[in-house]
């Protein structure tokens, strides 16, 4: 009976999980460090909040749109090279941003660099994890995407410290080098097929001579025409309209209410703490309670927390918002890839996940930018926060219309 080259006690799938964790920590850490750069960039380029927010919106929209390309590429050619390309682009973009002399160059370096780079790295990494697990798919996916939460936790204070020590240009250069070096190592550990290791998903071995099982499920073109995919797509779009507004505007919102800059930046890290906990805890819990029901609860929870944000004006209220919103956000990100495989199988997992994420791209492009424009016009975030809560509530209701996944997915509805 063959066993994995990593040793009889270590299932190779967990190495893939932690490699994906590292990819997401580095890529999304570079992305969510933007809150620490917001004030220095605004001062350097005399930019209004709406114009500066566009840099993040470009990045966020691109990393979801590009997933529709990188996912099928990973399905066809394997994820390793695609992830390596993504991390090289992300790191190079941050290095390029360090040389910016005008705001449009931040759009190119940070916006395009992070957007394209994370887009090529994220979906292939998380798609690879899905094929290594069935029974513990929700938990494994949660561990992998908790790298996003860890990046959200660690990158803003690290960036703030680097900015204090090196200035914002030196900080972007340092972060870019970290992403380039660490991303290259992590990318080489991402692989998509347990059968090449003599294993079935979850580490179950199969005997010599046993026919290698083939991946089952719908092809991308088949999946996108089903009702569950269409409903899931619309739900993700509705949720995403407000999903990333806190990552850009929570820090300036807090500063407007008298919270000091250092603590206001740390609020993004609190989202990261909640997000990391949510991805670890909710993924495994949803394996037992039902991943679809749990997804609906994540959407509803984010809607309620947006209303809490609207009523918040003190440091402790904003801290509570950041922690709890981050938990629900992290649960959503952990569950979405697993639910795709529950409904549509693993044959075209990366392609289906990447196509689904184009729904998030539209909301991501619109949300933070429109929130910034609303503030520039009205000197208030009230309307975008209320609109976000409403759209997230719609997403929670839409999940009911998906219906239960096929019984052969081995998951509760």
Attribute tags:
413 residues; mainly alpha; Growth Hormone, Chain: A; 0% strand; disordered N terminus
Describe, in plain words, how this protein is organized in 3D.
The chain has 413 residues and is mostly helical. The chain has a single domain (12-193, 217-404), classed as Growth Hormone, Chain: A (Up-down Bundle), CATH 1.20.1250. The chain has 15 helices and no strands. Helix 1 (12-32) packs across helix 7 (137-187), helix 3 runs antiparallel to helix 14 and helix 10 (245-256) packs parallel to helix 14.
Strand content: under 5%
Distance between the termini: 35 Å
What value does the Rg take, in angstroms? Answer: 20 Å
CATH level-two architecture: Up-down Bundle
Count of the domains: 1
Order of helices and strands: HHHHHHHHHHHHHHH
Task: Outline the low-pLDDT stretches.
Answer: 1-8, 409-413
- What CATH first level would be assigned? Mainly Alpha
Question: What is the global morphology?
Answer: globular
Tell me about the biggest sheet? Answer: none
How many strand units?
0
Number of helices: 15
Given helix and strand content, the structural type is: mainly alpha
Oligomer: single chain
Q: What is the CATH T-level topology? A: Growth Hormone, Chain: A
Kindly state the percentage of residues in helix. over 70%
Overall average residue pLDDT:
85
What's the name of the CATH homologous superfamily?
Answer: MFS general substrate transporter like domains
